[in-house]
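Q: I have 77 residues here and want to know how they pack in 3D. Can you give me a structure?
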Amino acid sequence: MASQVATSRVTGALGEIFAAVQAVQLARAEEGVVDHFRRLSDARRRSVLRERGFNFVLQSIFWNTVYIGTGLILLIG
């Protein structure tokens, strides 16, 4: 969920940047815009990595539980 929010922020900012290219150039604010976009992208990267890591741990626990349960059933049988 957090990665979706971060992704929507990045895509929204990217749309605004492309819509205001001339205004950014006239104001000579390219560095500020790039820094802002970099901060949004870093926040998105962190949230995506956090969610992927959590999902990886959950899948690992699930599959290990399945394999251990299968092994116990085979041993009992």
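Q: Anything worth noting?
A: The CA atoms of residues 49 and 55 lie 10 Å apart. The two ends are 43 Å apart (CA to CA).
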